Amino acid sequence: MDATHLVDITAPLQRAEIIAVGSEMLTPVKTDTNSLFITGVLNEIGIEVASKAVVGDRIDDVMVEVQQAIERVDLLVVTGGLGPTDDDVTRDAVARVLGRQLVEDPEIVERIRARFKRRGFEMPEINRRQAMVPVGGTAIDNPNGSAPGLWIEHGHAEARKVVLLLPGPPRELQPMLRTIVAERLAGRTSGARLYRRAINITGRSESHVDEALAPAYARWLAGQPPVSATILAALGQIELHLSVIAPNEASAREILDRAVADVMSVIGADVYSVDGESMEVVLGSLLKQAHLRIAAAESCTGGLLTSRLTDVPGSSAYVERAVIVYSNEAKTELLGVPPAVIDEHGAVSEPVAQAMARGIRERAGVDFGIGITGIAGPDGGTEAKPVGTVAIALAGPGGDDLRVRTFHFVGGRAMIKFQAAQAAMDMVRRTLAQRQHTAGSAEAARTAS
Amino acid sequence: MDATHLVDITAPLQRAEIIAVGSEMLTPVKTDTNSLFITGVLNEIGIEVASKAVVGDRIDDVMVEVQQAIERVDLLVVTGGLGPTDDDVTRDAVARVLGRQLVEDPEIVERIRARFKRRGFEMPEINRRQAMVPVGGTAIDNPNGSAPGLWIEHGHAEARKVVLLLPGPPRELQPMLRTIVAERLAGRTSGARLYRRAINITGRSESHVDEALAPAYARWLAGQPPVSATILAALGQIELHLSVIAPNEASAREILDRAVADVMSVIGADVYSVDGESMEVVLGSLLKQAHLRIAAAESCTGGLLTSRLTDVPGSSAYVERAVIVYSNEAKTELLGVPPAVIDEHGAVSEPVAQAMARGIRERAGVDFGIGITGIAGPDGGTEAKPVGTVAIALAGPGGDDLRVRTFHFVGGRAMIKFQAAQAAMDMVRRTLAQRQHTAGSAEAARTAS
After folding, report:
1. A125-163 confidence digits (pLDDT tens)
2. Which of A357, B182, B194, B352 could be bridged to A371 by S-S, CB 3.0 to 4.6 A?
C-alpha cells in the first residue's frame, strides 16, 4: 500500500478524541494533563478535540471507551497503558475492538533488548509485550523509553480513521507526537487550522456580557468561516474565548481582529486584554510604557497584590517596595495614617484607604500609591461591614486622591484577597488607560487644529 | 414518593462517572479540575470513579456521553453548562436522554430574581433558563450562584441510578456537593468507605522517600485491610497519600495512624504534616501555640510569603506587618541594611538576608524576622549566582542569627517564588519544632528528676 495514495482518497481528519488510560488518574490527586499538549499540537494542524476521557486499567472499560470513540471521531489518540506489566492493557483493548491479532515484531524486541543492554541490563522477558503490534499497524519509535507507539488505520476509503497509541510519560509522548504530526498527520488534514483569541473582561457579570454581545454572536456564526464564542466566569473576571477555523494565519487574524473590534465597541474599557494576558501583565505593560512606578500599602490582601505584580518578569522597573500593614500601629508608623482617622471611620474605610495610598506613594517616592483595607474573614465582619468589605484607594502624582471605592466581595478568604488584588490593579489600569486616551485625544486635537 | 423508602429497595451506589461540559476544557489551556474534588468526596463515601470525560458545548456530544455513561455506572455527575446562555446545554441534553420534559419552577425564578436584586440588578430574562427542571427532578440550592443543581433518579427498583448536575465554578460546586453527599448520597452507599491520609514532607527527593519507605510499603500491602500508598512530587514538597477501605472510621484511623507512625520513624522531622495541612497552616499553629509573632522582609518573593501566611484565618495573631524591598535603597531605608554590606556581598547574599531579617524583626518589634533575597529570573542571573539562587535568613529573640542558607531552586519565576516562600516557612517551622522538642525534653527531665 502506498501512503501517498491514501492521502488522496481519504477525507481530511477533523475531529479527535483523546483517551488517557491509567487508574491513578481516577484518584483525587492526579488527573490527565497530556491532553493539553496533545490538543495544542492537533489544533495547530486544524484538528479539533471533540472530547476527552480518562479510564482505569481495566480492559473492559478501555474497550468500551475505544469502541465509542471510534464511532464518533476521525482520530483517536490513546495515551498510557503501553508498559510491560499486566495492568498495561491498551494494546490488547485496541486490538480487540479493531478485530486485529497482536503479533510480536522481532525488530522491536531487538530494539528494546539493545536499549536495556546500553544501560547494562538484560531485557526482562515481560518487556516482550511491548513488541506486540496489531496486524496492519505500524510501530512508532520512542527515543526516550522502551514502549513504542502504534499507528493503526481503520475503515475504508473516505471513512478511514486513525488510531494512535502513545506512552503516558510526557517526555516520551511529546517528541513522538511531534514526529507523527510532521510525518503523517499534517498531510491528512484539510490545511485549515483552528485559531483562538481570549478576551478578558472586568466589572461586568457573565449574563450582562452575554446579553450585550448577543447580536455579535449571531453575526459571527453567520460569517464564512464562522467564529465561535465561549463565555466563562472566572474569579475577578469574565473570559470570552473566540475561535475560527481558517485556511491561514493572515485570514484568521483578520477575522478575529474584526470580532475583537465588535467586542470592544460594545464592552469598551471593561475589556482589559484581547490576547489572554493576565491583569498583572497588562498593568505592567501600561506602567512600563508610561515610565511610571507604583507602590502598594496592603492590609487584607497581605502582600498578594505586590506578589502578583512581581510575578511579571521585569516588574522591578515599576515596583520598588511595598508594605503590608495588618495592625493600626503599622498603618500609622509605616504610612503616617492619623490615628484619629482610624478612630473616626474604622480601619476598614475609604478615608483610611486613601491615607494609606497617599502615605505609601509619598514614602516610596513613586507616581502611584494604592491603599487596600478590608475584611477577608472568616471572622471580623459586622452588620455594617460584613466579611468581603474592602476599601481600595489610588493616590496619584501630587498626592491627589484619584479614585476610591468600597467593594463587597463574596467567597472565602483566599478568594476575597484575589478579587481585591484584581480590583486594585483594575483601578490603576483604568486610570492609565484613560490618561493614555486623553493624551491621545489632546494630541489628535493639536494635530487637527 | 418517599425518599426513605427508596433507600431500602435500592442497590448501593458503587461506580461513578464524571462528565465535565465546556468547550473551553477542550483547548490547550484549560482542563477539568473539578473532577479531582468530586473524586475525593465520592471516594470518602465508598464510591469509585470508573471514568471521566470532558465534552464541548454541543448538545449532541453531551447527549452521547450521558447516554453511554448512564448505561455503565450507577452515579453520573455532570458539571458545567448550567449557566443562562445558549451554549449552556447540560439541562437540555440530560432531559432529552432521560426522556423528561423541562418545566420552569417559579420558586427558582423568584430565588434568582432576589439574588440579582440584592446586588442592585434586574434579573436578565435569559436567567429564567436556570429555573428549568426536568419532570421528577429536584433542584439543589446553590448558595453561591444563580444556577441551581439538579438531582434526577432514573430507572426502577434495584437498577435505580442517580444523575447529578452541578454548576462548573468550584466555589458553587463544592459546597453543593458536600450538602448532597451528607443529605442524599451517603445513605445510598454500602457503608464501607475509603479513608485517606496525606503526609507532607520537605527536604527530601521523591526517590529518597520512596527508597526509605520500601519496607513499610510491603508491610502495609500485606495488612488486612491493606493500606495503599501513592507518592507524589509537588512543588516544594513530597506528598505521600495513604488510603484504606474500612468498615468504619475508628478502624480506619487505627490502621492509618499505625502507617503514619511507620513513616515518622523513618522520615522524622522532614514530615511537616500528617493530615494534608499546608505549610502555612502548620506554621501558623506552631506560632499561635507559642504566642510568638513573625515579620518578613521579602525581596524576590515579592510578598508571596506574607500573602501565604495571611491566607490562614486568624493569622493576624502572629503577622502584624511586613515589607517588600525590591531595591537596595528600600532595603536600607526600611530595614537599615548597611549599604556597605550590599556593596561587599551583593544584594543576593547571606549577610544581606541576615541584615534584612534582623532589621524587620527589630523594627516590627516581633519575635522572629525573616529575610529573603534572591534571583527569581528570568533575567538577572550570573555564573556565580544563577537564576534560582535565594538566600534566606531567620533572626530570633535578642536579634540572634538563628539560621541562614542559600538555596538553588529550579523552574520559572512563579515556581522559584513559591519554593522560596516554602523554604522560609520550613526554616521557621523546624526552629519552632526543635524548641518545642527541647522544651518538652527539659520538662520531661525535670519531671523525672
Report:
1. 888 989 999 999 999 999 888 889 999 999 876 778 999
2. A357
Minimal CA separation from B153 to chain A, in Å = 24
Dihedral angle over CA of A199, A193, A78, A133, nearest 10: -160
Could A320 and B301 be called an inter-chain contact, meaning their C-beta atoms sit closer than 8 Å? no
Q: How far is CA A361 from CA A211, A356, A399, B51, in A?
A: 40, 8, 7, 54
Query: For residue B36, which residues of chain A lie inside 8 Å, CB to CB?
Result: 28-29, 31
Task: Give the separation between CA A19 and CA A223, rounded to whole angstroms.
Answer: 33
Report the distance separating Cα B331 and Cα B50, nearest Å.
55
Q: Cβ A207–B124 below 8 Å, yes or no?
A: yes
How far does CA A407 lie from the centroid of its chain? 27
Percentage helix, strand, coil for chain A under 3-state DSSP, each rounded to 5: 50, 25, 30
Of B33, B68, B307, the CB nearest to A31: B33
Per-residue cell: B57: 458545548
Task: Give whole-number Cα distances, B364 to A323, B119, B356, in Å.
Answer: 12, 40, 12
pLDDT at residue B4, as a whole number? 36
* Cα(A165)–Cα(A167) distance, integer angstroms: 7
Bond into B378 cis (ω within 30):
yes
Rounded average pLDDT over B310-315: 96
The whole-model pTM stands at: 0.82
For B31, the closest of A36, A56, A326 (CB atoms) is: A36
Residue B119, number of CB atoms within 10 A of its CB: 9
Is ipTM > 0.90 here?
Answer: no
Q: Nearest CB to A321: which of B31, B334, B377?
A: B334
What is the CB neighbour count within 10 angstroms for residue B118? Answer: 8
